[in-house]
Amino acid sequence: METDETPRVLPFQLQFDKPVASQIKIAEWNPEKDLLAMVTEDSKILLHRFNWQRLWTISPGKCITSLCWRPDGKAIAVGLEDGTIALHDVENGKLLRSLKSHTVAVVSLNWEEDGQVIRDDSVLKYEDRTSRFFPPAPRVPRMPGLVSGDTGFMDDSEDSFRELSNSSYQRFNILCSGDKDGSICFSIFGIFPIGKINIQKLSIPTPFVNEQATYRLLHASISKVALSKDLCHLIVMCSGELKHDEIEPQERQLGLHGLHCLLLDTSIFWKRKNELHQVAQQASNIEDLIEVIRTSLSVMSKQWSDAMRTFHEKFDSLSRLIVDHGLDSSPQEEFLSLLGGARTSPPIHQFLVNSLGELGVKRVSKVVCGAGKELQHVVLDHLQPASEIIGFRLGELRGLSRWRTRFQSIGLDGTLINDATEKSGMLLVQVERFMRVLSSVVQHFSNFFNWLLKCIKLLMQEPSDQLQPYNSELVIIFLKFLYDQDPVRPFLEPSEVDVEIDMETLQRVKELVHLGGFSDCEYLRRTLSEDFQQMESSFKEAFLMPFTTISRKILCKDVLPLFGLESSPASMSVSIPMSVTYYKDASTAISSFQTNEHGFIDYISFQIPGDSSSDIANCIGISRGFMHGLSNNNEESALLEAILLSVPDGYHCVDLSLYKEGQIVLLLNKTTAASESPGESCMMIVEANDLPFISISRSVSMNHWNLDQLKDSVMDLQLENEKVRIIPHSVVAPLAVSASRGLACVFAARKRALVYILDEDEDDVSDTE
Prior knowledge:
Elements: E1 13-19, E2 24-29, E3 35-40, E4 45-49, E5 54-58, E6 64-69, E7 75-80, E8 84-89, E9 95-100, E10 106-113, H1 160-168, E11 173-179, E12 183-188, E13 192-198, E14 204-205, E15 214-227, E16 233-244, E17 256-265, H2 267-271, H3 273-324, H4 331-339, H5 346-401, H6 404-407, H7 414-459, H8 472-481, H9 489-492, H10 503-513, H11 528-552, E18 555-564, H12 569-572, E19 578-584, E20 600-608, E21 619-624, E22 639-646, E23 651-658, E24 663-670, E25 681-687, E26 694-697, E27 715-716, E28 723-727, E29 731-738, E30 743-748, E31 752-757
Parallel strand pairs: 22-27
Antiparallel strand pairs: 1-31, 2-3, 3-4, 4-5, 6-7, 7-8, 8-9, 10-11, 11-12, 12-13, 14-15, 15-16, 16-17, 17-18, 19-20, 20-21, 21-22, 22-26, 23-24, 24-25, 25-28, 29-30, 30-31
Helix pairs in contact: 3-5, 3-11, 4-8, 5-7, 7-8, 7-11
Domain Anaphase-promoting complex subunit 4-like WD40: 28-113
InterPro entries: APC4 (IPR024789), Apc4-like_WD40_dom (IPR024977), APC4_long_dom (IPR024790), WD40/YVTN_repeat-like_dom_sf (IPR015943), WD40_repeat_dom_sf (IPR036322), WD40_rpt (IPR001680)
Domain Anaphase-promoting complex subunit 4 long: 260-462
């Protein structure tokens, strides 16, 4: 028993107490470093070091509803209210990628990687044995705005986009995202969508041999998703109404409305991780390059349109001068008359000498010819290399699709890949065709401007020996076919009118088809932009098949009804503290090579609200072994262990988090009536492994809450018997705990952040608040 002379030893050393400008609603520690990502109430993302030094602040401009770290700690995934998932670079907060995977708010994100490193000799690769005949793959194109998330020129050392793509491929990882309407999306490396399900459409089997029935979860809203470390299972915490699938709606069956825990079978990710790794890597590269081509076409279209606008703004004044002088001729006819040596008409003389002048010709020439050269650079440095790499990657996928025993099971269809490969080849043909047209047009414009400079010099009776030579025949061709027409722009924009092509050329193309290599005879009638759209469409169609195939193989294995909730909108909007994690199961005797169970055991913790309709309100529930309860098809094995901890009177749980092996961190607020009082709270660690878990029989009917079996054996949570730290502030969620670093960040209601060190030395630390 302590005496007054004995100093009170406080667990959990307080590292610092810092003010925060705005209240924090989401906080997560970096899994690898002492970095804390926080989201404020006004949806700004803050990144702080352990010493509270702020690295950067960004504002996506939309309401942020969830956040998680990439497993290597180099990127942050942010879920937004409109269903978008944004990936940000940890170094500077820059947007790396944005995916519109959902249509409503993304409320939960979980990014998990396979624990086994994929080495070069274990990854399935398409071995190219023709390197002596083909040049090496061109470098990935880069220019401002051409790479998703790129905002300007950067050095290679700052190329975060490449870092996102390459470093992720060292280990296979899956980003899971759940929204408030029950949809769950899966993305490999966080950038390649590979599956999507909705828990409301899943058929939920019963865990009992004597009841062969299925259930469905109606009006479901996801609270948390957690993928196991072996990628074989996904635990989903969700609210909704569990009803029998075979009972007709008119019977008005009263279902179980409350919090449920679903177990989904995602073993396809583990069984086919090598195949999915290879396909995702190639497909992600192709998607990146498609964005390069799309933005290249957009940049080129704008540059050329601006150049043509400048040309017509200068030369349209000639038409007005011709009308003002009462002549019935066109600008082309006036120029041809001047070229033929006829007497210079007054409007032409006035236009060339007064309106346009030598300086005006040089300016327009610089704009038009400069734009043509810029377009050529974009094609040679970006669009053409991107098209070539796409063809190269699709060729690799084409080879993989022929390995049917391994890749057909994930939906890689050889016919669709072949079609996409041909479309990429047609795009390369269109690129070559566009370059020929562009070079010819730029040459004609340059020749025309050289001739105009010669004419202006002669009209002004100035020496013209230093001028560039010109070709009269090319001037005639320009005036007849290019002066008021633009053959370049249709290539860069979609057109409803087919490109005119003579029948003789079309017949030659049809004859070439018989030689093999391609089957598209109509590509000459299309433009570069249209062929790009066709290639993109064929690529999406080819990878819709793996997406659909994987989605169908994700099934629900089990459901655990936890406790009831009121069905009112107010109760559904209340956030319930919960945490799901997986620990190494030391009792696992079977090798992971002999079974799909890779030695992990799940721990699920949650708070049962004080206003819950259940008889076990204001308790902390902890369960373990949910995903292992159905390893055998008999009732004796259909067991899981759980325990209920009663929160002490005068306290309520603010948040909780599973910590290290078998430990749970609880954050409790002391109930106080005085609003002016700063309040009091406490943080404590409970050793879950020391608790007397009780086995729950799964043979109970699905019409009852499973935790009701524990209402007669609730264990009181004794604050004096646990490691408890009293906090002289009223606290709010979230509680951010780092298991790898042994840290906890607590946020006081009066906008303060308190960081505690949970892992202590053998010598206890005594300090005061």
